[in-house]
Amino acid sequence: MSFYPVCIDLEEKECVVVGGGRVAQRKVRGLLSCGARVTVISPGLTDELSVRETKGEITWKKREYRSGDLKGAFLVIAATDDKETQKQVHREATERNLLLNVADVPRRCNFILPATARQGDLVISVSTAGKSPALARKLRMELEKRYGVEYRAVVDILGAIRPVILAAGLDQRDNEQVFNGLLHDDLPGWIRAGEWQRLEGHFADVLAGRVEGDWLRAIRPFYL
Q1: Whole-angstrom Cα distance, residue 51 to residue 39?
Q2: pLDDT of amino acid 102
Q3: What is the domain partition of the chain in residue ranges?
Q4: The pLDDT value given to residue 143
Q5: pTM of this prediction?
């Protein structure tokens, strides 16, 4: 099976996780990081999930899954190794046309969760279509080493300067040249070393005669 890679907006979306163990804990952590509203259905919870429930970060239904529990959900994750429960969740999710991931059972999924390296809004995901999660995890760890915290700042700075450039009213070709020109190979290294004058000098060279907005004020809040 071949999966189509997408990024989904989960902000304030209702998401249901069936299961309260360590796998569920990882799934809940990821959902909350994207602003989802999460309900966990399980007789018990890990310590971390229990703390989240106490803080009001998740809703907990302290029992086994029941038919009808998925009503109103946008996305469902079955994080349980109980095959009968997996089957029941799959049946209801299919009937309701919901997004469903059954952990470690690709044939019951209509979407899968890639191994993901994240630095702020920079998200790099690796998938083997469920054939080798271990390989995906290994590659994710390599990506985490390769793309450090400086890349969070790279994304934030480029994101902050983008509206200033677009407001300058350049044509599409000029915009493309400017955006590509800002991407100097040494940009992450300058940020990592705190060489902000070199970064600003490079940006000034690229923007000279094209962009007159206050781009310095826009990017400086994102210096490390």
Answers
A1: 14
A2: 96
A3: 1-113, 114-147, 150-222
A4: 97
A5: 0.81
Q: Which pLDDT does position 131 carry in this prediction?
A: 86
Q: Does domain 114-147 have CATH number 3.30.160?
A: yes
Shortest CA distance to 167 belongs to which of 204, 201, 220, 214?
214
Decide if 10 contacts 65 (C-beta within 8 A): no
Residues of the chain with pLDDT below 50 are none
pLDDT recorded at residue 173: 95
Q: What is the CATH number of domain 1-113?
A: 3.40.50.720
Tokens of 174: 């000029």
Maximum Cα–Cα distance across the chain: 67
Is residue 31 within 8 A of residue 38, CB to CB? The reply is yes
Length of the chain as a residue count = 224
Q: Roughly what angle, to the nearest 10 degrees, separates helices 150-167 and 196-207?
A: 30
